[in-house]
Amino acid sequence: MNEDQTRPASVRLYSALLKAYPKPFRHEYGSQMEQLFRDLYRAGRGSRSGLVLLWIRTLSDLVPTAVAQRIMSHTDPREAAMRNRRLAVVGFVLLLAPLYFVSASLLKYGLGVALMFDPLEAVLSLL
Asked: Can you give the residue ranges of every domain in the chain?
């Protein structure tokens, strides 16, 4: 018996599914991914529900990341970096927008002044 026949069917299937990733990605991370899967498989061995949960988690991760890696392998790295910067700026603006509108509303209706200066006045009166 060779080594491939002694491995569990789940581990052999996972090794075959790794072919969904681009070759450079598999070359760099494939052995580590297989090792992690083997470790998780051994940890849940003996439990049918553990095996089902392992495959649900595995497939829910493998499908989107394999597609993303395939797409990224065909894009220019500078273009991908520029896209990531744009997404970071958009995310930053989206995080700050509510803060801007809340602070503008507080100041417009005079609520902000009381919220800022009442605690300060209380601290200064103690001194």
From this structure: 1-74, 77-127
